[in-house]
Amino acid sequence: MYPVIAFPALAGMTYPKLDDRSLVRTVSGPEEIPSLPEADRAAVRVLMTSATRGCSAQTADALPNLGFVISQGAGSDRIDIPALNARGVKVRCVGEALTDDVADLAMALTLMLCRGLVRADAFARSGEWQQGRFDVGDSVVGMTIGIAGLSGRIGQAIAARAAASKMKIAGLNRPSNTKLGASLYDSWVALAEASDVLVLAVPGTPDLKHIIGADELAALGPKGRLVNVGRGTLVDTTALIEALESRTIAGAALDVLDTEPLVPARLAALPNVILTPHIGGQTWGQRARGAKIAEDEVLTFLDGTRG
């Protein structure tokens, strides 16, 4: 019997301290937990999960002595936090391990969109370079970058990178943003209207579903760009496709989709969109950092509860 149950770790993510002490048992996923012997489930104090697998109330109910859920990733939208809190279960998301990598991707996508780097690569490879010069791209210097999630770890990391590129920073008029030295706006439409590039770096909570729709995209305008490294549900995909097709906005770069891993054919066919397969925090460095944090947190919890 093991005090820790873990869903399969990502490649390169190992927990040597837990393995050395024979503390962790790996199961295929939440669907396997109810089939475990009752004594095995009763022995579990910790569940190690991920942002994609989460922890439902049903999973927690199958582990009567669960005291700690730790998740690799920044998102908690698939973790039933109210249900876990009601049971006194501690929840920890290891978001700090991926902050810099997600911010790097957000800034890279911003530069790729504005400079037309994907098209430039195709232009050079195809032989078109021999026929003439590539179109001039847009400099980000002096542009305004609107950041949804400005006061969060990732939002602040994006802002630091954008400031280093001599961009102006904007966000929503929220108490958490008032001391950050950014220009603040009272609505999503107003923020979009003020932004040359609008970056989404907030979780996919129900209250934020489709915060970017037709009105916000129209406000972003024909020279504006959208970058989403948050969650796919933040954007009305149909409205976005229509805005890209009609050139209501200049372009978009999306690391997340509400249909992922399925990419709508209309979206994939567009030349003014960049798509990446939800890789914002997926680096070897993030996996090593995340595993170390999770391992130490689990050992601290177990040692503390054992007295």
Describe how the helices and strands are arranged.
Layout: E1 4-6, H1 16-20, E2 24-26, H2 38-43, E3 46-50, H3 57-61, E4 68-72, H4 81-86, E5 90-93, H5 99-115, H6 117-126, E6 144-148, H7 153-164, E7 168-172, E8 183-185, H8 188-194, E9 197-200, H9 214-220, E10 225-228, H10 237-245, E11 251-254, H11 265-268, E12 273-275, H12 284-306
Parallel strand pairs: 1-2, 1-3, 3-4, 4-5, 6-7, 6-9, 7-8, 9-10, 10-11, 11-12
Helix pairs in contact: 5-7, 8-9
Percent of residues in helical segments?
A: 25-40%
Rg value: 22 Å
Note the run of SSEs as H and E: EHEHEHEHEHHEHEEHEHEHEHEH
Low-confidence stretches: none
- Biggest sheet: strands, sense, closure? 7 strands, parallel
Shape: elongated
Class inferred from helices and paired strands: alpha/beta
Q: How many domains?
A: 2
CATH topology of the largest domain: the name is Rossmann fold
CATH class of the largest domain: Alpha Beta
Q: Note the beta-strand portion.
A: 15-25%
Spatial separation of the terminal alpha carbons: 20 Å
What would you call the quaternary organization? single chain
> Can you say what the CATH homologous superfamily of the largest domain is?
NAD(P)-binding Rossmann-like Domain
Number of distinct beta strands? 12
Structure description:
The protein has about 300 residues and is of the alpha/beta class. It has two domains: about 5-95 and about 285-305, NAD(P)-binding Rossmann-like Domain (Rossmann fold), CATH 3.40.50.720; about 100-275, 3-Layer(aba) Sandwich (Rossmann fold). Helix content is about 35%, strand content about 15%. The protein has a seven-stranded parallel sheet. A five-stranded parallel sheet has the order 2-1-3-4-5. Helix 1 links the parallel strand 1 and strand 2. Helix 5 (about 100-115) crosses helix 7 (about 155-165) and helix 8 (about 190-195) runs parallel beside helix 9 (about 215-220). The longest helix has 23 residues, at about 285-305. It starts with a strand and ends with a helix.
